[in-house]
Amino acid sequence: MYRLRPVANGTSTDHPVPGLPFINDGRLPLDNPDAIERTGRNQGQGLWGRTDPTENGGWVAFTTEPKNPSFCWAVFHHPPYGRTVLLIRDSDQSDLHYQWKYGGAGFLHRHGGYWWNGERWHRPAQVRDAAFESYDPRPVEGPTTITAASVLNSAPSVPQNASILTIASFSAPGLVPNWTDHLALWAQRRASQPGELPLDACVVDLHAPELEVEKLVGRVDLARIASISTDDLPHPKYGRNDLPEPQEETDGIMRWSVPVARDWAEDYLRYNGPEALLSDTTVYGTTQPVGLVADHNRLRRIFHETLTEPSHSGGKKQPPYMKGDLAQSTADDLAWDAAIALMYGSDYGLIPHGPLREVLVESIMGRLAEDVEERGGEGKSRETMMLSDMPTGAVKLLTWYLQRRPGETASILGDVCLRARVSLDLHPAKVGALFRRSLSLDSDLDSATIDALLDMALPPSARDYRKRM
After folding, report:
1. How many domains does the chain have?
2. For the whole model, what pTM was predicted?
3. Per-residue DSSP letter, 329
4. Are 186 and 16 within 8 A, CB to CB?
5. Is residue 53 reached through a cis peptide bond, with omega within 30 degrees of 0 on the bond before it?
């Protein structure tokens, strides 16, 4: 998710961030990304610069500001939408580089990560689609793009009340109160420069029904949407990065749009929900994976029988080792140690879980590969080709594994969907439907549990096959 907060707009930007001051960027060679990189790269201790090409003929360039090395210039040239020039903290340089170069979440960010790619607005990138190794783009409903022209036409402004800051003395003063005046001064300066984007093409902000202040929700509603208690929410002081970036924050109180809260809940449940769904209560009153509880209960019975059953030695009947409550508590404790050893063994433990998982995934992939090879010559496309059921043994082993290691559910399903898409050209939704059908046929999970598990843990692109059918 985009969490970076710039500290100023460069005067040459085409898309100013609302509220931020404007700072003179006249020293930057804005048409030469290599020169921007050389401004800071290897020019002294603590200075750095970098440039990289992007899709569609664009580029990004960064440089520490030599006159004020606490800050960094960030430039994104994104034809045909002009360029973005921001001043950021130098410590944020690598994060923004990754977001712009590899994040796949546009080049303009507003309201806690809402992003624009030149065509439409999307909600913050939160829901990871493992089948595509990227975030699932979620378009905003009913967005209105606010341009510099619309801001200046809708409110009075006095450019003389604003000023352009210089980098040498800049200290990140925060938001400016009369920002429309500053925007007017920025527009006035660029009016005399040839080739600049018209003001009605300069994107400033976003408005959408979901961003209306009265519709934003706080921590209590965020927990309710995720079906967890507020105590289970990450603490904003210690786990802020585990919460969605807020759309509004006042005095440390964060508030989010409902769609952002839902997306966060969806991603949270993908990785945490299976552990709650596939859980049971032990004789000690603790919650553990359902498979571990089943193993423990089975071993309790075995150990209790061994401890309380009379033995025979030298033709004579010997009394049992233990009786009553002592026998049961001892059996419980011995069984717990044994069950834990089975559950949490390393790759070289009693059950080598890592290699077991690899064999499990390979058996599923092997059947998919056989289907594609055998049926690929029948004139059917991958879209219409009917996949065979997964091997019964693989389904039973998958069920056994997930009941004992439910936290790996999303990882395993995502791994299969990714490999099937890349290696076999099978759409993740088709593989997701196969998981649903095969588990229904051969696992000991009931249909409600299967649907809940797959609805949580499958990648987004693998969950919609029933709709597409």
Report:
1. 4
2. 0.88
3. H
4. yes
5. no
